[in-house]
Amino acid sequence: MPPVILAVAEVADGVPTKLSTEVATLARGLAEASGGQAVGLVVDASPEDTAQALAAYLPRVVAVTAPAVASEVWAPHAAAEVGRLVDEGVTHVLVGATADGRDLAGTLSGLLGWGLLANASGATWAGDSPEVEASVLGAKAITRSILTGSTGIVTVRLNAVEAAPAAGTGTVEPRAAADAPATPAASVLERVAESGAEASLEEARIVVVGGRGVGSPEGFGIVQDLAAVLGGVVGATRASVDAGWIPYARQIGQTGKVVKPALYLGLGVSGAMQHRVGMQSADAIVAVNRDPDAPIADFADMIVIGDLVEVGNALLAELRARSG
Fold this sequence. Notes:
This protein is 27% helix and 27% strand. It is built from eight helices and 17 strands. By secondary structure, the chain is α/β, with parallel strands linked by helices. The chain has a seven-stranded parallel β-sheet, with helices on both faces. The chain is elongated and about 60 Å long. It has two domains: 4-176, HUPs (Rossmann fold); 206-323, TPP-binding domain (Rossmann fold).
């Protein structure tokens, strides 16, 4: 039987996340290559707008109205809806490699007994299964793996594919939620919006990053000022996050977020391999560092050797003069 590939979307401010549109594009491409079908799934308290937006990428989208996700953890409810679609013929599940996506993938693997390939940076169809590409060992090696059998789950990293709408708009199928989540769902007691996180780090065209060299929480002032003038978003290395200078949500790298901006500007960033994994796909990489032998010098498009505060202030002055 031809495969049925399900793309599970996540919702942000009433629309699919950028990663969700990429997952939908990948699911559609795999379905076309295999002669199968691609289906989208939105599980939310108010899924209508997200489902309509996702229908630009997929021929069919199931929109499940699940009021409980407004006050409970999303993954158990999403797992229940995926289970219903598996009973209707879904053979493969694609979901973003986010915190919620990983929760969902692990839950499904346990409940269904399906194989799981994580952190895909690409996928093509090979025989009866997707062939999944993943970066490992700090991006020193690329693996290619195939799921055994005719079913499986894949988590997909941001920027694995470029989101591309389909030739036509698909249909949206509204549904009521299942009677119960697939596993007990924990209640959400509080939601905290991070200050300064209005713009998504993963989707930013310009990212200004502070590393160990900024020296303190106050040192991030120059990073924030440059990001504001450039219209960019602040990022950080693991060292500066571990030091408590900036929230974990700003971390870029192997254990943080993956970015692909038009411009990456690193201040006091050494360029360790773990950080490089999260930013090496930037169109242009500019670094400011005192050390000419810092690893980032080996792959940056431009490196300025000097004090980051002096260089940063000079750059700020020039940018402000031009905008004024």
